[in-house]
Batch of 3 targets.
Target 1
Amino acid sequence: MDSKTMVPTRWDMDVDFVVIGSSCGGLTAACKAHELGLSAVILEKCETLGGGTAFSGGVIWIPCNHHMEEQGLPDSREAALEHIRYTSMGRHEEDMLAAYLDKGPEMLCDVEKITPLRMQAASTLPDYRDELPGGSKGGRLLAPDPINMAQLLLEAEKQYPMLSQIRRAPFPLFSAVPLPTNDPRFYVAGRALIGGLLLGCIQKNIPVMDSTPARNLIVQDRRVIGVRAERGGKDFLVKAKRGVLLATGGYEWNAEMNKRYLKVPDQVHGITPPGNSGDGHIMGMEAGGSVALMDLSLFMPTIRIPGEMVDSEPMYRIFMFNVGQPGNIIVNRDGKRCCNECFYPDIGRAFEAFDSRKSQSANLPMFWIVDQAYRDRIPVGPLPKGSEMADWIEKGDTMEDLAQKLGLPPQNLKESIERFNKFAKEGLDPDFHRGETGYDKRWAFFPKLKPNPVLGPLEKPPFYGVRLHVGTVGNLGGLVTNTHGQVLDAEGDPISGLYATSNAAAPLGTGYAYTSGMTGGKAMIFGWAAAIHAAGAARDVGKEAAKVQKAVPGKPAPAAIPAKAQPSREAKPEPVTAGRPAGATVKILNEDGSSVLDLEAVQKTGDRLRMKGRLMGSFDTNMYMDASGLYRFLGMAIRWGTIKFLLLSPMYWYRGRKTRRGG
Ligand SMILES: Cc1cc2nc3c(=O)[nH]c(=O)nc-3n(C[C@H](O)[C@H](O)[C@H](O)COP(=O)(O)OP(=O)(O)OC[C@H]3O[C@@H](n4cnc5c(N)ncnc54)[C@H](O)[C@@H]3O)c2cc1C
């Protein structure tokens, strides 16, 4: 037997449940295990906590969640089932899908009860393909309550400095719009999701050990009984009486695995932290686990700015928000458009496309092209709008000149731009359907632009171009698990004592389907389920569904799965949201006119102020704060620098008053 996996004669630590990786799934699992009476520990490889989730949007996808119900947003289990069956390309498993849909709302209620995390249903954030059967126009996607969580965590950080170890984005995610997400003092999005869960762990005294990578699982009589980790350069042996959960994220930083499993060998760059290098996959496979869906990855366009590094590795900057604006196109190696620039999964499809006639990548290398008008009004990566050139972006006085500098056929690039311009002026894109869906338009910087907020011609010279690199915010394939998060071997039998979630586990509930929040949703649901199973408290939620024949994509399900009862009212946490506001009295706007905060009402309740409104066009907010809290908030808003306060006309006040009086 390998000495590294041999059963040791002494252990450094002895607990019931070992969680490897401080992802949202790992933290959820540790909190739930503790709640069920198990002792738990979290081992984290990096110095920072929260992995890629910490600087993600922090959005989770949970159909039929209780916050939708509170806001009166429609949804049904049948619709969500239909949507996944339609979009999964037949690659999901029915019992895993049923478990996702049934456990999801229950997990969310429970997590809001046992941790300080509070989420909000984003009522205007649609499923990526909301126009397809069963799609939702809003509410299935939830994000951490932006105001309440930020305040809570900023306060908590004073008492628990560990919170400040939550990983920060290495670059501004919304590079063209200075949103508060980039303010290190502000806990929003992924930092708030991880923050709420981590605070739960801290309050429960669950040890969170950073800089402690797990190296091997220790197996005895075909049961995983512990972990050999490394701490301060030495072995650190942890006994796990009830189980080990792999929540180690994806394998995107493992070049060898990328080469083996992805269709774009040698070209993939992780946007998650470099710690996500497939350790959980490898440990799970060593213990006999099988893997699935290894070809799936959340590809994103990135740019490389020489010299920029993350954790001593070359950094590739996410470039998703620049490409979704008017006045730019993406072209392939032939100077021809190849994707819907507004929909990053379609850019991912173009990255992978293969030209069988030439036996080469159909599109790579791909380039992003803009004109001076775009540069005048939108920043590009770290370059402010209208600023001078940088050595990582090419400039040409004419389209042909730019094509030559980028090594593209000049005539093709010219024709591509001219054809795009002709249709863009009419607000159309017959070639790639850009700007046709609600999701395409969701991130438009100029939402009021006519005829289409994400289409506009490239006409004003000079022209600019930069090479796009294949980035990924997570490779999705991973270990095969069952509805309790147990890792299965090649014969489909559970490996005793071993669980997996996060991107270390294959997304068998959703298959090929993807909407933002499915990674986070899956990670939390199956981490939670794993803890319940390890504590011996599991119910077989997916059993009924397992009896149902596999559905054919695009066709109705062969048999209806009985709807599960929604979580009971008693199980609900104290709501922190209010209904949608009827009218605004105060607007706080971004420079581009998009709304940061629509404030409908400020009410005095005792000695506290209650502010009711909508944040960033999506989230209902219902803040309670004392006057000093209000001044702090306003101070922060002013410091953001780009935010303007506009007092709207008394008409709004009058309308609001009428509504409040029921007029
Ligand atoms: C900008 C951006 C926005 C995104 N937005 C969303 C979104 O809104 N919703 C969504 O669902 N997804 C989103 N994603 C995708 C998602 O965040 C990533 O796929 C993500 O990293 C998934 O998290 P995870 O749970 O798999 O693991 P992670 O959160 O990456 O956590 C894995 C952890 O395990 C640790 N680890 C690895 N190996 C070991 C080891 N051997 N021992 C101990 N610890 C180990 C890592 O260091 C890391 O901390 C986004 C990603 C990015 C980059």
Note: The domain at 308-473 is CATH 3.90.700.10 (Flavocytochrome C3; Chain A, domain 1).
Target 2
Amino acid sequence: MVVLSKMTDVGANTLGPFDAIDCTCYEMCHTWNSSCMGTYVDTFHKAFVYAFKVYAPLYLLNALWKLQKKRTDKKRLARSTILQTLRSTLFLTMNGTWVLMVVCAYGKIFGKFHGVSGFIVGLISSFLSIIIERKSRRGLLAIYITNLALEILFKMSVSRGYVTPINRGEIYLFALSNVAYMSYFRGSNLPSYLQSVFEKVLGNDETKTYKIREEREHSSVAGNKFIFSLKKMCSYLLNNLNSIGSRPPSCCHGDSCVAYSARAAIKFFSIGYGIQVLMNYRRIFQALLRSNLSLLGKSFLDFRLAKFFCAYVTVFRAINCFLRRAVGQDNPEFFGGIAGFFSGFSALFYPSTTLSLYAVTKLLDIFCMKAVATKRLPFFPNFDVFMYSLSMGIVYHASIFEPHNIRPSYWSFMKGLSGYKFPLLFRKLLDRFGTEATKMYPNFVPDLDPKYVITPEVQQVLASHGKWP
Ligand SMILES: [Zn+2]
Ligand SMILES: [Zn+2]
């Protein structure tokens, strides 16, 4: 928490992380309801409804996907889907409810709120809620929240002037992390689920797990029996491309190198475009409802993801082929790393800090797992619980003291989970911490019930805004 410890540098009268302001939990936190218990009940109810709406469609889609498999026990699947949905819903609901319970307990124990109170409250409440969730989901949640916490810490450092953001830094970050990913991928050293995802995207011709080429050629001929005319046209084009250039012995793919890269370009441009159109569905519906042709055109002519997918796979394949040709033999890990670096710059077409940070966080996770497997690092049981709680501590600190440094989509999610009560904190009381707590809601002063406002400092602030009788 280096960033937190430097909060004192902001100004001479600025409070630090271990300084405190006098106020009660009602005056500062649940300003919309003077009853602590009433707030818990209300928040539990609203968070449960919101969390159920988040998880029910996800588990339902997962169940529908599993139903496709022939030997699925339908009764068992239905039961596990309901139980898992309820368990995840309860985890998320309690995440929102525990935080209020712990904040009230903090206020009652200390009689004041310190600069680190948001972090401590977030850490404890997130620990109490993550242990409700299934063990198999904890790692994934920990990675997601660690990624978010890193982004928040970065924004906090930028807003305090400790760090100057590098122009297009997220692209360099993605390209550098891709060096390790592609080196591991070509050496078949990624965790098995990730290896199979990359094999589906980049093709298993590039990995060490080669199949016998004849087998592949046979299967591709068999698969060509039921193809659509559009696919036939593409195949015709690619077959002609196949006659352009050649394939060096060190390349394991069946086609010529040109066809091998061109195939990727066509396939992944189409897939990327399809996904982008699906992602733009809201804009498309809006455009159709309003008969807005220019918005409709913009939504359908959005090629960002198509270009990103296309460049990522094509550059990766082309550079690997080029290196194999130039050297006359394959060196999977080394060539994979070089190709990964250059293909990583495809993120220029789809720059995303979230994606780049996720790539880095996941890579750190892979490094740690490998280090534990080779006994270079000791094994910490429940490390995912620790990381989740620590990261959520940072997220909750930011949500109270500096919500402007949280990713907007996650802030919307937090607001929804709290029943849209998170913006109603009396953040003007936190101004003395110098974190620009009121930046997002500069004019908000709660309508507190004078009967329960007992702290003179809070009464003064209310009076200065004409809200004290
Ligand atoms: Zn309370
Ligand atoms: Zn090749």
Note: The longest helix spans residues 74-110.
Target 3
Amino acid sequence: MILTIADSCLQTLSADLAKHLASDRAAEETGWLLLGIRDQTSVHVTDLVPAGENRIGTPNSIQFDAASQVAATKAIRDRDSRVEVLGVAHTHPSGRHRPSSGDLEGDKQWVQNLRSDGLFGIVSDGCVRWYSLGKDDDEYRAINT
Ligand SMILES: [Zn+2]
């Protein structure tokens, strides 16, 4: 799979991350819903939706604010109906590069709601590492960007 990410998304991610790390919630995980366009061979991330002010974060977990995600996703899809939910990216304040066993447990359920394989980004040590997980997969597959 070829993964491309819009420059605007990388800028948003970087700016959001800097703001998060300077906040009093810096020790908590945070994240973004990933939206974009998919075809047979490639996935292009066009939009990020932040986890939201009402997210519930701990040093080892993040629960997105579902209401704000639904509203933002609808607004983006009203603009371009080809856009679909591709996956999520979240931070690991611990610096761990791979998804955790808790991530896998949650993502195996969540990916069932997607049209195709889910895209998952782990943000740690200033880098994003990308993984995919299919509906029948028991493990993530690393994606090289
Ligand atoms: Zn995680």
Note: The chain is about 25% helix and 35% strand.
